[in-house]
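DATA SHEET
Item: assembly model
Revision: 1
Owner: S.N.
Input lines:
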Amino acid sequence: MRLTFDIQATDGHARAGRVTLPRGSFETPIFMPVGTLATVKAMTPQELEALGAQVILSNAYHLYLRPGAEVVERCGGLQRFMGWPGLILTDSGGYQVFSLRSLMKIDDEGVSFRSHLDGSLHTLTPERVMEVQARLGSDIAMVFDQCPPSGAPPEEIAAATARTTRWAERCAAQPRPGHQVRFGIVQGGLDVDRRLAHIEALSGLPFEGLALGGLSVGESPEEMHRVLARVAHRMPADRPRYLMGVGRAEDLVAAIGAGIDMFDCVMPTRNARNGQLFTRQGRIVISHARYREDPAPPDPGCGCSTCQRYSRAYLQHLYRSREILYSRLATLHNLHYTLDLVRRAREAVIAGNYEEFVAEFLAGRDQRPPQSSC
Amino acid sequence: MRLTFDIQATDGHARAGRVTLPRGSFETPIFMPVGTLATVKAMTPQELEALGAQVILSNAYHLYLRPGAEVVERCGGLQRFMGWPGLILTDSGGYQVFSLRSLMKIDDEGVSFRSHLDGSLHTLTPERVMEVQARLGSDIAMVFDQCPPSGAPPEEIAAATARTTRWAERCAAQPRPGHQVRFGIVQGGLDVDRRLAHIEALSGLPFEGLALGGLSVGESPEEMHRVLARVAHRMPADRPRYLMGVGRAEDLVAAIGAGIDMFDCVMPTRNARNGQLFTRQGRIVISHARYREDPAPPDPGCGCSTCQRYSRAYLQHLYRSREILYSRLATLHNLHYTLDLVRRAREAVIAGNYEEFVAEFLAGRDQRPPQSSC
């Protein structure tokens, strides 16, 4: 068994567990910061470690294009290349191939696309994608899937789901490093029955975990929550359940309640760079005139190093001046917020009061963020 | 006496000293990292402190435009606004007004210019510039000077120098915070006699230190070194001598030998962001193909945290991907290099072997940086 999953506590559908892999272990529920290009934007590995990040996500598609999987391999693998002492999950790139509008041709064999960097032509097959991830040397590799766009017609979603199953079988047959595990990806759009059928189809394949793909791709939060509530707890209970691309606080809380164990999302880091700071009361937009001389930290209740040292007034100045330090301080804060939220959710599951945790979380969202002036 | 300057050792014209101000002290020779907009780009105050920075430079002109001196004042002054525990020198903005090509009108009263941010019209006089620096609350304020362009005709340089003297008198007559000292700025282009005459004129005014402005503005290093060699040691020996805008390693070593005590420059930070990393052997251009799979740190002899943890291969990947982490790691390295160089120069002055230090420095420049591959 390359992966062992100990469920330490459950509360309703919510679970608290520990996943152990050959190179390390992590606690669930877990939020995995996104480091698309072998770096979580603006952060050092040491800062991520201090924030309590245990696994980060990187992207096989992006790293295949630059610097190239062979370069990373010759530099000792992704972990060593970027100096990250924790675990790494690599996304396969399926989502990127379809979302970056660079797609040229898709058939059962694989996908042809043009690089978004230089326009060069590339072909990725399930076999090649697993080879790339093997070279990168990640701890968790994702299968190559076809992710149809949000609102695609039912027959297109059905075809993509069937193809994702055939590709998953080919991915599962590929060689891999001794320390690497593989997760399958469940597609099926917003159709609960199709999702359940795909879970059934993938459960029989030798994947150490299963993920839900194709959610948070344009549908409303209510639609996603509806699907999650009916689908998540039907995924195999003895393996980690991973909801891809979801990181909004409200969605994390709902999805953990529905039985999801793992998350990744660019939102905490991207929103930080775009001027949105997370607080228990909701988001603040740092460029707002009301913060111009505000001596308070982003979130007065927060214990992160940004909130310990810097005012909204200073952060607004850095943001307006497009200073790099702004991206650092804001990213650190938003990651702290998100990692801390999931950590507290885990504690609530263990304490058996997840319902109260959710109620308290939702009640806090109704309060306005405190304001003051210098 | 708001400023005391203890000269601890001399070696030829070179000096090692300690400057004590109401809010702290610093050792000379000193390199002051530039934080134009109340942030040394990409660095936190804690990192600067760990690098051994004692004074940073910020810019009255830029802060006057954004966020405004009144905002900084109401937020407790520059030191508190940006969370920097050390000392701060503010440049007056004279150089910026003339170099940013935004100048509308200049006469004895002052300068009218358009903001480079929004085109709005502003007038700065010597009085107003000192008021801005008083509000910012810096430890060392610079007088408002007229800095003529490199290669300006002699009569233009003569007129600018005379006006700088009249403005210096008006600056010296302004009120200031109890903790603030003021430095005059010597102009005069590359004409040694004019420089000496201007030193004479400014020496009689109540400035705690004198600076050389209008150098490193386009002339060759040889021309600058020639002027420095004849001018620096003729500046008042009992006050700190500050060479503005100079930070190239060869220039620092020559200027310290000529008797200069203080330096600032954007070069270490700006060149870092532009892909140039300093080593004892010279600069390396990180985007060069030869570093693509190079596992060596930027400078194998360097003790900074970047060189302890990251390879040239990884830095090149981050640089090519325009990742924020690149700017952080490269800036930290270049600042470490520059601060360390000046620290070693100081030690050489104290040890009485500055000449050997210079010879060793120059000999090192002839070696090629070591190369290797993954």
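QC remark: The interface with chain B takes residues 37-39, 41-44, 66-67, 71, 74-76, 81-83, 292-293, 295, 309-311, 313-314, 316-318, 320-321, 323-325, 327-329, 374 of chain A (CB under 8 Å).
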